[in-house]
Amino acid sequence: MTEPKTRRRGAELEQAILDAAWAELTEVGYAALTIEAVASRAGTSKPVIYRRWPGRPELVLAAWAQQRPTIPQVTDMGDLREDLIALFSRIAFRMNGMMSETIAGVMGEAFRHPEIADALRERLRSAPLTKSVQGIVDRAAQRGELNHVEVPLRAARAPLDLVRNEAMLFGAPVSEETLVELVDQVYLPLLRGLGY
Q1: In the chain, where are the structural domains located?
Q2: CATH number of 10-62
Q3: Separation in Å, CA 66 to CA 33, 37, 123, 125, 146
Q4: How far is CA 7 from CA 22, 38, 137, 151, in A?
């Protein structure tokens, strides 16, 4: 005798959908992912998915957010350069833990669809990275390594942009040597320039 199926709702159902979306991404990639396949894998229907996410890119962004590796906050290393290398390494770890095809697929959708670009921009705007960068800069200013400056949003997002660009153009994983070059040749000069 088979057990009667219980209907999943709320958070349990959403988690099943996000898990199914990630599994589909892993198996078939972004280009071949369909809402129908995700619904089938999650044991639900397409309308249920569309009530929560308007389309494939939003669903992928949500699944991506659930799966990205978690890393402890960068601790104060006592030196601006070392703090920045630790931050860039943390970003690269996250980037290396994601599938580059997924990132490329979402970025491609963002170029074709303004609403996806808006969703991606909002996700980047609300990322905790900007607070991490400002904290590093504040500590460096307290130690006298840097003039105090409120880091503009674009400059605060630059570590992510730099690491993502390296991963997209040259492939993940981004090497430690490359991360050090990005800090020494690009980001430290940028921060020092902001203080003048």
Answers
A1: 10-62, 68-194
A2: 1.10.10.60
A3: 17, 19, 13, 17, 36
A4: 21, 17, 50, 48
Token duo for residue 162: 């730099």
pTM equals 0.70
Cβ–Cβ under 8 Å, residues 67 and 94: no
At 3, is the pLDDT very low, low, confident or very high (cuts 50, 70, 90)?
very low
Is cis: bond before 173, omega within 30 of 0?
yes
Both tokens assigned to 191: 């921060």
Which of 59, 68, 139, 136 lies closest to 99 in space, CA to CA?
68
